[in-house]
Amino acid sequence: MKTETYSTVVIGDGQAGLATEYFLRIIHEDFIISDQESQVGDSWRKRWDSLRLFTPSQYDGLPGFPFPAKRGTLPTKDDMANYLLNYATKFSLPIELNTKVIELRKISESYEIITENGSLFSDFVIVTTGTNPVAHIPEFAKELDKGIVQIHSSEYKNPAQFPGLNTLVVGAGTSGVEIALELSKIRKTMLSGKATPHIPDFIFRYVGRVYWWFAHNVLTLKTPVGRKVSLKIRSGGAPLISVSLNDIKNARVEHLARLKGVRNGLPQLEDGRIVSVDSIVWATGYKLDYSWIKIDTLNIKGWPETRRGIAENTKGIYFIGMLFQFGLTSGLVGGIGRDAAYVVKHLHKSKKSVRSSVRQRVA
Prior knowledge:
The protein is α/β, with parallel strands linked by helices. The chain has helices spanning 15-26, 42-45, 77-90, 174-183, 201-217, 224-236, 245-250, 336-362; strands at 2-11, 31-34, 95-96, 101-107, 110-115, 118-127, 134-135, 149-152, 166-170, 188-192, 198-199, 240-241, 254-256, 259-263, 266-269, 279-282, 286-287, 306-307, 310-311, 317-319.
């Protein structure tokens, strides 16, 4: 088992990790990125076959490298995966793949990142794994009849995966609506859940530049309206973009009440209705899991205690890629660069402050 020492270790090589490394490279920081995937961009490659980004290509680039596509086009998930791979290559970013992090802990004045391949030691750690690492499926799903095929949306690829008679999609967020629309083309499909507010398509297509400016610069934690939107999104989920309940209606997908539990092995809705289905797609989101972080930087709900990604209780720990970290666009590829720049700037200042303090003590 090997051991290596760096000034900074970045955990996660998704868009947040790559944007962070871009700025670390600019300040000539000694760093490495650790990721469990076998290739840069794999987190996108694993998503369902027909997935496209809902933001046009001009808003899908990371710092220093615009997305290489015609303005107004919606990149596929493979387009994004390949873009991230090319980004890492273009800037020669040092990445250790096939390296799953098992534990992060503090040792003396630095940190140890324990991986399956050995340990990394550093003065600074930037966690860019995001807040959606573990698929969430309700506990009562175990009570469903064993003949009902169940998959989470993170495992969904295409309609050919499972029986094609009656399918229930649980969860009316963007992923749930998109999957229900695709399934409805070849089978009877039902959608269960309360949809989040819908942002009309014309906003992106015809006034996209103005909307992006508003979302990026006004809907932030610095403004009253931004803080209000932040609370709504954190409690109720992100808004529907590129799809709507009108699309569900036009596709003749039956929109049902929320799923309450199980009765006699079948799904039961909040209105008491029992639904007979052959398969279920759980588009029910993800569970937060920072249990591998053995440092006092999480609150009682398991969320990092940070100010714009800077850990409040522990020096040298940072987070990037969290929902509404600073603004609405923090969760989008084209907006994550701002958070990365802010965090790296703080890290750089902290490092210079430490060096200055050491020089003063020596003198």
